[in-house]
Amino acid sequence: MATDTFEFKPASRLSRTLAGGSDFFFKLLRIAAFYVGLIVVWQLVADSGLWESYAFAGPTEVWDSLQQNWDNGRIQDAVQTSLKRLAIGFAFAFIIGITMGAAMGGLKWVDETVGSLAVGMQSLPSVTWLPLALIWYGLSERAIIFVVVMGSVFAISISARDGVRNIPPLFRRAGLTFGANHYQMLRYVVMPGMIPSMVQGLKLGWSFAWRSLMAAELLYVSGGLGFLLQLGRDLNNISQVMAVMVVIIAIGLTVDRVIFARLEGWVKERWGLA
């Protein structure tokens, strides 16, 4: 009696490549269609007359303002100044936050004291640090860096604490079984184990730092993207205000896609979470 046999063959590498390329193409097409539609709606709203021209600018006026500020170098100088401040403030916040978080996650009495304070301080909007920064540091770069640090350090510390808490107890017992000392436990068990939670904490901390920086740069004539926003408001130039907002959004998307998306992908692959 004859029986039918079925042979399952894995898809060829070429077919998988073509399928992946097709998905990528349609993804780009969807994104492009969305943003084109968004710009069209934006232009229609600007032409509708719901707002006066001095209160709402269309995409063509915003593009002209963006091109003008790019040609005279204002955008490049502002971006460089803002990113420099962000790098300094976020570096301080990262070091302080990691140290606080590791201590809160590893020592109960630290979590009960400093941890409760960190949770409360995280609820403070970053703009509330501006008056304190002015009193302590005056109109200076240190005031801006202070606001950036205070706006992000507690989010990073809480994420680091949660990362330490989420380490499986089996990892700790295994380290102790192999005779690991305190430094080795910290180096080979605690720090690697907290990385998955820390990625989200770093992303959240960066977003808080970025928004804190924009608020702090409104303090005084200090350069940066926040200053360009304030200058546009003072000149009643809505096109410049919206152009700078577009630049801020573009930088945020770029950092998220280029740095944090890749970091998240690496963590998922490295820790088997994908």
Number of helices: 10
Rounded mean pLDDT is 79
Low-confidence stretches: none
Q: Provide the β-strand percentage band.
A: under 5%
N-end to C-end Cα span: 46 Å
DSSP strand tally: 0
Rg value: 25 Å
Shape: globular
Largest sheet: none
Give the ordered list of helices and strands.
Answer: HHHHHHHHHH
Helix content: over 70%
Broad structural category: mainly alpha
Which oligomeric state applies? single chain
Structure at a glance:
The protein is an all-alpha fold. The chain is built from 10 helices and no strands. α4 (108-122) crosses α6 (141-165).
Structural overview:
The structure is a single chain. The protein is mainly alpha-helical and 274 residues long. Helix content is 80%, strand content 0%. The protein contains 10 helices and no strands. Helix 8 (182-216) runs antiparallel to helix 10. The radius of gyration is 25 Å and the shape is globular. It starts with 12 loop residues before the first helix and ends with a helix. The mean pLDDT is 79.
Keywords for this entry:
globular; mainly alpha; 274 residues
